[in-house]
Amino acid sequence: MSALRARDPIRRGRESVAGALFALVVGLGLAVAPATSGAAGGTTPAGGGLSPGTLNGVSCVSAGSCVAVGYRGDKTLIQSWNGTAWSVVPSADLGIDSALYGASCSSASSCMATGVYIDSSGHHALFESWNGADWSVVPSPSPGPDGITLLSVSCVSAHFCMAVGDYGNSAVIESWNGTAWSVVASPDRGTERSSLDGVSCVSVQFCVAVGNNSSKTLVESWDGSAWSVVASPTPGSYGDFAAVSCSSTRSCVAVGNFSTGTGSGSSTPPGTLVESWDGSAWSVVANPNPSHALLYGVACVASKSC
User: Among 45, 69, 141, 186, which has the highest number of CB atoms less than 10 A from its own CB?
Assistant: First the structure.
């Protein structure tokens, strides 16, 4: 299993920047700024008594409008940026443990966040939406009785989003039509565990999702009607994508890690993996690769600017 998918029990250190004109980095161990309100149903005290929070995903629509999501303790955590300062925004929680992993905003008044919550019956998908005034939970379908976690979401408008993650031992994809989420068929390649960790959409007719299947990189593409597997190289014996960003149908970049061993638990340290899409094929891109390094997020605003 990749280190990218280690959860304790539902935590995953990662970051993703979606559709950003202005990119902000988020990650593990960030102390949240004091605020007068926190998760729905309670208040977060101002001052120095706050516990550290973890921010996993961020989305910006302008230099003055960003949203970052994650968790603090067993509650969801959402922060907003107004061009000057970050502030905690009230967010909803379900079950006994909730966390958010991805966010995507198509405008300052339309955002979607994805994650997971746990109750007595197991893991369940968590969707929360922003209407410009409040965050609220959106009902989520499940493919079946197994546990599901949604790790990434990409929205091109208030009426079209794609979210990806894992369900049991398989990848899962869900789509938003402006009214409801529904499960979309995901092509199954191989019989071993698969997961989709990142997704990027440039239109209702073009999305790319990335992850891992049978210890190899996994890329799937949406053409407006169905998802299909797209060939992608794995430079070692193990490869995994954590995030992807597309600036057009002919330009995408995916990042993650690879190893010449058997995965993150082997004695062979992982290295950074970067691959690019030119409209016809995926190829490995040379990149600085310090020892024991992994890449968790990427944002592209043009084919030559990531």
Answer: 69
Q: Which residues contact 8 (CB under 8 A, 6 or more apart)?
A: none
For the chain, how many structural domains are there in total?
1
Q: What's the predicted TM-score (pTM) here?
A: 0.84
Q: Which residues lie across from 153 on neighbouring strands? A: 163
Residue 21 domain-assigned (yes or no): yes
Q: Is there a domain that residue 98 lies in?
A: yes
Range of the domain at 198: 3-204+221-231
| Neighbouring-strand partners of residue 6 | none
pLDDT the model gives residue 36: 25
Q: Is residue 114 part of a domain?
A: yes
pLDDT band at 126 (very low <50, low <70, confident <90, very high): very high
DSSP per position, the chain: --GGG--SSS------EES-SS-----TTPPPPP-S--STTS-PPSSTTPPP-EEEEEEEEETTEEEEEEEETTEEEEEEE-SS-EEEE-----SSEEEEEEEEEEETTEEEEEEEEEETTEEEEEEEEE-SS-EEEE----SSSS-EEEEEEEEEETTEEEEEEEETTEEEEEEE-SS-EEEE-----SSS-EEEEEEEEEETTEEEEEEEETTEEEEEEE-SS-EEEE----SSSEEEEEEEEEEETTEEEEEEEEESSSSTTSSSPPEEEEEEE-SS-EEE------TT--------SBTTB-
Question: What is the pLDDT, as a whole number, of residue 31?
Answer: 33
- Report which of 194, 301, 282, 270 is spatially closest to residue 3, judged by C-alpha positions: 270
Q: What is the mean pLDDT of residues 51-64?
A: 92
Q: Which amino acid is at 105?
A: C
Write the pLDDT tens digit of every residue in 73-123: 999 999 999 999 999 999 999 999 999 999 999 999 999 999 999 999 999
